[in-house]
Recover the amino acids of this structure.
């Protein structure tokens, strides 16, 4: 992943991201609870490590290559002996990791790197037969992208948005292509789904919230609407197992 000079500031200032994060982690925590995850590896925690949201674990390891994100996570750990943080790329940290993880969370960065297949192949080395590998990325067929296409605002749903360009994103996946990425690299994919219907772009969502039009109950309604349009959530989440 190539972190630009303004990446951290842009990340913090991304409109609506703080709201979307609530629904992203609601989904992830529910999955962790279903799997009764006790030993967890998170790769790429950013400013929001999973231990801030899911606390029912016995051991957690975080691999974070970015110094800003690493230092932020260290402060939040505050000496908790159950949490270990490694400030290295996963390629360099792999030899320090065992294969006893219940869940490996690849945070939302696979679309920001040139070598997602290399990362998935590497992670297979530390998977056991029961390890769940979970990841999430933006959805090319999100409601707001499809609307923008049908309204003539963008030429293709796979076009890079302004935020995609700002954050140096390399790929835009839909559910089929994201599933194929994992299958082509030696994973079984028993579960892939999207979550949270986002009707408009981040900046528009933020304005509608600020103007009091999108209230918390409306936002919860968007989250529940995924049952009616399961492929059109704004992000894709995958649950996989190494073959």
């Amino acid at each position: 992943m190539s972190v630009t000079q303004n990446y951290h500031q842009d990340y913090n200032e991304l409109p609506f991201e703080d709201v979307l994060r609530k629904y992203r982690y609601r989904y992830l925590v529910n999955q962790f609870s279903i799997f009764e995850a006790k030993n967890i590896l998170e790769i790429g925690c950013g400013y929001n490590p999973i231990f801030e949201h899911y606390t029912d674990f016995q051991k957690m390891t975080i691999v974070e290559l970015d110094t800003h994100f690493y230092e932020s996570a260290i402060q939040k750990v505050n000496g908790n002996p159950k949490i270990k943080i490694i400030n290295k790329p996963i390629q360099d940290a792999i030899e320090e990791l065992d294969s006893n993880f219940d869940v490996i969370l690849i945070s939302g960065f696979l679309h920001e790197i040139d070598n997602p297949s290399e990362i998935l192949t590497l992670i297979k080395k530390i998977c056991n037969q029961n390890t769940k590998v979970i990841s999430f990325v933006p959805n090319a067929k999100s409601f707001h992208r499809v609307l923008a296409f049908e309204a003539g605002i963008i030429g293709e749903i796979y076009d890079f948005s302004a935020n995609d360009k700002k954050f140096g994103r390399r790929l835009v996946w839909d559910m089929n292509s994201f599933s194929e990425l994992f299958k082509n690299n030696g994973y079984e994919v028993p579960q892939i789904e999207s979550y949270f219907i986002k009707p408009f772009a981040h900046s528009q969502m933020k304005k509608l919230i600020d103007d009091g039009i999108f209230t918390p109950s409306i936002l919860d309604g968007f989250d529940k609407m995924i049952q009616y349009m399961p492929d059109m959530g704004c992000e894709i989440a995958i649950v996989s197992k190494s073959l």
Q: What stands out?
A: DSSP finds ten helices and seven strands in the chain.
